[in-house]
Structure formats: C-alpha cells, structure tokens
Amino acid sequence: MSELDRFDRQLLALVQQDAALTAEQLAERVSLSPSAIQRRLKKLREQGVIQRHIAVLDAARIGRPTTFIASLQVQSERPELMAGLRAWLEAEAAVQQAFYVTGEADFVLVVTAPDAAGYEALMARLLAANPNVRRYTTQVAMGVLKRGLSLPVPPG
C-alpha cells in the first residue's frame, strides 16, 4: 500500500463504488486529467491491485433469492484432497465466497440458491464429488443487511 499515492487511493475508493464511472467523471472527483486517470487505472490493473470489474446483480430478480452460510468440516487435510475441494468450490458458481478458516469448521461458504431444495441439491453434489467432506452445517440468511466486496482504502 505504501506505493499508492492519494490519487490512487481516491480512485480505488471511487471505482469500488461504481466501476462504470468514466475517466472524465473520475477526473472531476480526483482532480486529475482523464488521461492521467486512464494511465493510473491501467497501472493498478497491471499490478493486480484492481483484479476485475464486476456488476452487482439483484439476486431475487434473477431467481436466486436465498443465501445460505455453510460450514464444512473435512476428514483429512491431505494436500491432494484439499486441492480437489478447493477446485470444486472455486468452479461452483453458486458458491459466492469461500473461506478456509480456523476453528471447528475448515471452510465457511456463502452460497446462493433459488430455494432450500436447490441448496440441498448443490450440497448433495458437493458431498458426492468430495468424499473428504465429513459434515456441513447450514445457516439461512433471513435478510441481507449488507452485501459487497468493497475494501476500505486508507487515506495516504
């Protein structure tokens, strides 16, 4: 973070809120020229600071209104078994987020599904493809208070 100046930090905060802002719009807010904005954004992408641009969708409007939080326990942490599970989780579109954690669970997942039956079908596929998963527990989100991936960008 030390190599990011205040302009980079301002840009990062702004594009996290709305990645569709044009260079001209960003230039007005950051007090740089549009070409300077474009150069900085290109550099931030090349350095991997900006990893990708996404659209945030309304889950209910696309038929996936239910969010589940699943905690997985594995039987063995053998590298080849863990690699297979990680690859499966990364490839599964319904798994929105997956965290390798400490504590009783080994992984915590945020999963979207059309309903409980859809979630159960997903978990049945997960267990069939990953026999190393010992058990899982589930919490159903009753409502979403906040959803996002924005990171706080400390000022320079």
From TrEMBL:
Coiled coil: none
Residues covered by the HTH asnC-type domain: 4-65
One Gene Ontology molecular-function label: DNA binding
Membrane-crossing residue ranges in chain numbering: none
Alphabetical UniProt keywords: DNA-binding, Transcription, Transcription regulation
A Pfam family it matches: AsnC_trans_reg
Protein name: DNA-binding Lrp family transcriptional regulator
Protein source organism: Pelomonas aquatica
